[in-house]
Each structure stands twice: as structure tokens, then as C-alpha cells.
Amino acid sequence: MPPLLELKHITRRFGRLMALDDVNLRVERGEIYGVLGENGAGKSTLMHILAGAVSRTSGEIIFDGRKVAIESPRAAFELGVGMVYQHFKLVDTQNGLENLALFAPGAWLKGITPQIRQLIARWTTELDWDVDWRTPIAQLSVSEQQRIEIIKALCLGGRLLILDEPTAALTPAQADSLLTAVRRLAQRGLTVLLISHKLAEIKNACDHLLVLRRGRVVLESGAREVSTGDLVSAMIGQDVTLPPARRAEHSKGPVLELVHEDTRSASGRRRARHHVEPHRLVKASLRVCAGEIVGVCGVEGNGQAQLTAMLTGEAAVRGHLALDGRPMSARAVGRHMRNTGMIPADRQRDGLILSWPINHNLILKTHARPPLSFGGVLRRRQWRKHNQALVKQYDIRTPSLIIPAAALSGGNQQKIILARELAMRPNFLLAMNPTRGLDVGAAAFVMRQMLLARDQGMGLLLIHDDLDEVLRLSDRLYVMCGGCLYQTPWPNASRDQIGAWMLGENLHQLADAAPLTDQVNLPGNGPVTP
Amino acid sequence: MSISLGTFLVRQTITAAAPMVLAGLGELLAELAGVIDIGIEGLMLAGALAAFLGAFVTGHGVAGLLVGILAGIFMAGIFGICSITFGADQIVVGTAINLLSLGTTGSIWMLFQTWSQNHQLSIHLTKAESFNRLALPGLAKIPFLGPAVFDQYALVYLTVAMAIAVGWILHRTRLGLVIRGMGDSPQTCAAAGIRVNLWRMTATLFAGGCAGAAGAYLSIMQTHSFAQNMTNGIGFVVLALVIFGRWTVWGLVGGCILFGAINSLQQTLQTARYTSHSAILHAMRHLPFEVFQMLPYVAALVALAIFAKSRPGPRFLGVPWRREV
User: Fold this and answer.
1) Which of B174, B189, B191 sits opposite A101 (nearest CB)?
2) What pTM was estimated for this model as a whole?
3) Domain layout of chain B by residue ranges
4) Mean pLDDT of all residues in chain A?
């Protein structure tokens, strides 16, 4: 039997940029292929070509022994190729069923047909997933949306499934269960192409690995025959030194104090829908001191969004909130944002003005300060000097500073935000998923900069999905579960214990919301002995 | 046949609401697909004049209606090529279409008037050239309601059928999912293999046809003639009513009926103040008639302020679609 898919000399050019340069690949049936590479290495372009979203400049695609031209997404579906994009292709005002019907071919004047329901039923039983098909996508959590997206891709394709960074937005437990499900599907004959930045994960889940660098395949091997170090050096062409795990020795004055308790009963709220309710923050007590990194980890949808909203002044605190030692109302917090550093969770929406050039994005927060402006007028020479220094210091790779931020890769976009926020030397920095979607090299850079900022006396609050990174960076750690914030005895607790707390197990071991009246809680001084 | 005042008011309400519903249905569909055509006023005006001229030349009302629809589609085509194909700003192009239409129809109308005076022709259509009220046999005999609801122009019944059809398509078919999807997330539709700009163009042309028919309704049905700027802002009211109805068919229809009711009430008041013996109405004689004409618009503003809780419309409304990469 011929291989399911064979790519011969695939090339794709965007203007002067060679996104893919003579890529050859054989994909056997029922196997899982991991695709690795830095941001901008060409992984997504290759996948988009297979899904019919991007056309190739030259080369041949042989699917199931036949030469094919995948010229549209529709053509890909007809071959049996379904793709789950990193940014889900779902209409979020419509529910899951409607989204599937939107993608189903033909039948313009029919709605949700029995065939669609049958297909859904088939794949949900196969995957053993419980999916809410009737709630608008916008009200579902990311992992629920992803399940719908995956089932959609399977219903449309069903022979080759392409997953573009499926675990980027998931907690470790969710990622595990997803990869288990994918392996189960592969055992039944489905072929999977999986893009990921998480090396350990991809090494465990895949049969074969493929590393792309600058549009070329630089390494192809069985997953077991290659070491993590080899993969990293193949990806970025050099070794990466990950930041040292040095803990802050002592903490200074608090830069953030928060005591919040929402005593309203759940039933009193307008609609106690289970998927809306968990976003509420019920009880939290949190302190961040100068010169330390405080981590908050938890399964998405357990109150992180509201915690963030309170710290940025978008939601009111029921209790007490002080920044830089000054008690503040929500409005005052909002005004204080110009002095607070923030790395938002969605960098493209909340962190950058994508259509604006880089040099404008770099001074969004600092433009009014000396020496950048004088009497409300920007001083161009100072501005240029400032930007050039930041580009150099933060290694922002761009041909020019006057191209729009949208033109850069995710890693470089994140560097712009990091440069801007750190350059204003805030006392307090709020960082949400700062390495989400970044490749190893860029992620290490971001982490190193955060540690550096801590050593220079900044207080950082890190709300992050990636447990390993939180553990590596945090001096103290809180766990968020069911709308409550719990202080953990980290580093005197194991990774597994923390994982269990995140899922709501053994929470009685932790005192929720430790009172702030006593002295600063140093690492290990938590009220619990595990 | 003489009818009661109540019946008369209901009948006038429906007569006034129908063209707004018709134009509104098209606009609603286009807006849900992500295209905001504020040139709808201009499309209606073009439809009105084209329908009049069509009927005048051919001598058939139906032919006039078709010409009116075609004129609407043609103008919508200009709008679509500029704003969908070439991605120009929809508000700017729409405004241009309004101005273009106002000027063009005005000039043509003046030329026509001069020409008809020279040839001593009436600028009013005859019975055969226009539409008259079509009483539905049987139903029109129902007391009170019959003459009010079932003695209307043919296009009114068609509008009702179309409102039901559009509601059904939007919420019960894949076509409806695609239309709404294009306004909320065009990139999703593109990933589903749907040619977003082609479908947006189709929706825009459909809206143009609806607006053209609504314009024809004003000229060859309601007045049997044309007048400079005869739409008089109805297109803009329709734009507001689509938002007022929160992008639903029933909200739109309700808004149009409300507006039509107040309009027919103020028209009745204007005449009644000279004929009635009521002291209050008598006192109104000294008010300038513009005060009455103002009423529906004041009511629309008040209603918008009270009822229109802000609900975001289609997320990509007015945003041209360009394929990423």
C-alpha cells in the first residue's frame, strides 16, 4: 500500500521570503507525526497547504497514491484532510451544531441534517467526549471549543487530522487527555500531523518527528531515536541555556495587596449556568512584594479572567486592593495602569495595535514621559534612540521599525510588548501566559528577562497555563480553583501535589486566602505542612 | 367604500411600513453578512425614478417594477465593486452613492418634466401603468380588519411572504448560517471553503434589488408619480430600524410598523385639525405642519434611546474581507 501522503519538492514563496524550500515528506497511515520548528519556520504554511488554505508555489502532493491539487479547503475535506487551526475557525455567536452545519458541504436550504448528527455521534462515541453542542461558542471554555473544533475536523476529514498547537491553551491534565484521545484515534487508522512547541509532550505523543528551520526540513527521525537536546539544536541551530532556577533571597515591601471576597450567593445571580459561573472570583487574598515572582496556576476558567480584570481596573474588588502601597478603587487602578507593567494573555488583541508600526507600539505607554516628549510634543531624536536601544536590548528581529506590528512573528511581537513594559521600569508587572505560542528560544528569552527584572527589584505576578514554567520561575505559588485562590507551600511541594490542587483535589491541605495581617509569607512559610 | 377611522389608520400604517420592511430585509441580510450599505437611501431613490420611467415608457406597471429592481441592483453593484471587490470604506462609498443618486435622479427628473411639459404629457401614471390596491377576495370582506389588511398593494403581500422567507433562511438553513457567519467571523467561512466576497456581493445585490423594489413602491404604487428626493430620509430610517430591531427580522418589522403607525397618525392629525370640531385638534391649527412631520422621527429617536439596549451587531460589520497570508 502506498503511504497516505507524500510531499515532493514543496516550495512556497511569499514575495522575497521562502516560507517553504523543497520540502519532502512521507506520511504513513495510522501514525502520528510531530512537526517542530521555531516561530516562522514554515510549519503552519506547510499545514495550510495541506488544508487548502494556502496554495503552493511548486511541488507535488500525492495523496493515497494519487497526485492531487488541494486548491481549496473544500478540496481538502473531500480528500479526508481536516485541520484544527491554532486560532479556532468557529463562529463564536453560533453553537457547535451550527458551526458544523456551516462547514458541511452542499444543501444550502437545509439546516442541521440527520447526517451531521450521525457523524457527530460517531466521533463523540469514538473519542468518548462529552460536548456541549447547544451553547454558543463564546460561552465555552477554550478546551471545550477545541473539542468541537477537533470533532468538526474529523467529521469533515476523517483520514488525516492536522493539529496546529493543540495544547498551547490547555492545562497539563487537559493536554494529556487530548493526546491520549489522539493516540486512540491513530490506533484506529487515523493519521495525525501535530504541531507543538512543547518538546517533552511531542516526544511522548508522536511516532515520528520532523523539524523545520527556515522552510527546510533539517531533521526527520523516529521519536524514540532522538534526544531533546538534538531537537532543540536542530530547531534553532544552537544550544539554548534555560534561565537558572535561582530563588529570591528575601522580599521587600509589597507592590500588590489584594483581599477580595464575593459573598453574593450563586443562586442570586441572573443565570447560574455552569459554564458561566466558574469565571467568578469568589475569594482571593494575594500579596506580591518587590523582588519576587509570584505564580498563579490553575485550570482555565476558574477565576483567572476576573482576577486579571480586577488588577487592571476593569472589575471592582469587593474588599481591598493596594498597588505600590496605596489603596485604590477600580477607577484608580485603571488610571494607575500607565505605571503598571502588563503582558496580556492575548497579545494581538490587548498588547499591540497590530496595524501600527513597531516604533509606535514601542512607546504606547511611555510616550508622554521625558525624555520622549516635551510639552506634549514627541521628540523624534529621543524617540529613535529609545527604540533603537530597545530593539537591540530585546533582540527584536525586524527589517525595519516602520512596518506594522502585524507583520512580525508571535515571538517578536511578544518581545515588543516585553520591551515596552519593562522599559518603563514598573514596580509591578502582571504577566499572563507570557510564553504562550512561543518557540523554545523566544520563550527562554522572555523568561530570562523576567528573572532579570525580578533581580532588579520588580515584583511580578505570573498567571500562566504552563505549569512547568510557572514552577521554574515562581518564588511563591498560588493555586486557583473554583474561584478561590489558595496559597501553596511551594517550593516545599511536589509538582504532582500542585497538579492535584489545580484539579480541586486535597484542597483541604491548603488554607484558602491566607490573611494578610501577618508578615510577608516567605517561601515555605505557608500555613500547611504537606 | 367608506371605512372607519381605525381601519383607515391601520391601513395607512401598513402601507407606510411595507416599503421600509422590504428595504430593511435586504439591508438586514447584507449587514448580517458584514456589509453595511448606507447608500440604501440612494438605491431607493434610484429605484423609484427608474420604476416610474420604466412604467411610463413601457406602459406596464410590472415592467416598471422590474426596471426599478434592476436600477437598485445596478447601484448596489457600483457600491459592491468599490467596497467589496476593492475594499474601499463602506461608509464613504455609501455616502457617495447617496449623493450620486440624489443628484442624478434630480437632474433626470427635471429634464423629464421639461420634456413632458413641451409634449403636454401628464407626469402622473395611468391605471395600467401603475399598481392599484389589490383586495384579496373573501378576506377583504372581514369587518374592520379586512379593508385594513387585505386591501393593499400586491407588493405588501409579497413583502410579508419575504419577511417569513428571510426569517426562515436565516435561522433554519445552512445558507443562513453562512450569511450570519460572514458577519461574525469571515475567516471561519473562508476556512469552510466559502467564497466570502462572492457571497457578500450576492447579499449586497439582493439588498439593492429590495431597495429598488421599495423605491418602486413609493413611486408607481403609492403616489403614481415621482418627486425630487421623494424618499425623504426613509432609507436612513430603515438603517436605524435594522439596528433598533437588533438585527432580527421581527425586530425590524416591529420597528417599521411602529414608525408607520406614528407617521399615519400624524398625517391624519394634520388633516383632522381642519375638519374636526374637537377643541384640542382645533387648537393645533396654528402649529406649522412641519411639527407634525417631525413626530415620527422624534418618536424613532425616543424609541431608540429607550429600547435599543446596546447589542453588538455583526462583529465584522463594515470590515472588508481580505484573505490572510
Assistant:
1) B174
2) 0.73
3) 5-133+153-307
4) 84
